[in-house]
Amino acid sequence: MVTLVKRAVAECIGTLFLVYFGAGAAVITLMIASGEKTSTPFNVGIGALGGLGDWIAIGLAFGITIAAVIYGLGRVSGAHINPAVSIALWATKRFPTGDMVYYVFAQIIGASLGSLLFAASVGMDAVTIGGLGATTPFPGISYLQAIGVEFIGTFLLMTAIMGAAVDRNATPGFAGIVIGLTVAGIITTLGNISGASLNPARTFGPYLGDLLLGGSNLWGFFPIYVIGPVLGAVCAALFYDWVSKEE
Amino acid sequence: MNTVSTVKRYEVAGMKCYVCAKAGKDTEAVGICIVCGMGLCMEHAIREDTQVWEGGYPFPATKTKGKIPRILCEECRTALKR
Questions:
Q1: What total number of domains does chain A contain?
Q2: What ipTM score was computed for the predicted complex, to two decimals?
Q3: Where are the transmembrane segments (chain A) (predicted)?
Q4: Is A161 within 8 Å of B61 when comparing Cβ atoms?
């Protein structure tokens, strides 16, 4: 196994890519749709161009990036690129405490760098129009509903990770594509409800970028994207251990 | 138990040694290279303790504590040592 520092760097770079390409796709969609009239207040711009197709495109940008990072760096660090996943593996005694803390810090740093790099690549419109792809509950969705939606989405994601990768009987080689497509599917349905973050780092990066670059201060929503994903991932890991255990 | 039947027991059913076949000889294979799948006779099979990596997503890949014996052909053995 490579050193913890190298593994943390791999997590940092992997999460940087996730935010740059995934959240970046949401920014670009909002920038292209800027000025378009939307038919309902529930449509804030993503959906103005191709309806649910906008969310499929964003979901695939996330999913394909996740698959690329899993195949590219999975053997180095495990390619969690999500604090909820690291915490869930730690909570089920599969991952050491010290490593988990390093991974979470690295993921948060990577996500922040990804957001800032995207703003540098696109310009200030990425902040003022696209909000750096920050997630917030959509109009009409309550704080509690958003937590519930993030819980459900991350529960499905972690269940797929457990079944396709953690389980010793999983068919090798398929985890990347399965998990990438799972994220794409979840974002397609849940994107226009809570933003479908499923990942505290993925929300932290754009929030910090917006704050530093003069965008909106959205930190009041941040607990949604910590509580929902972390609880969802931990519950899914515990559920999988229980449901798959032979008597 | 005679020598012939002992050898027969370890032959890979129906498979010939690829290295011998290339040289125009017809020798029964007694093993298969774990890397390339080449059938190998007793003369060309190399049984060697090899360092093996295990694991991978969502955990870092790790080397096994000890080396594990593997049947290899000469080409794959050389490639693994590079």
A1: 1
A2: 0.75
A3: 12-35, 55-73, 100-123, 143-166, 173-198, 218-240
A4: no
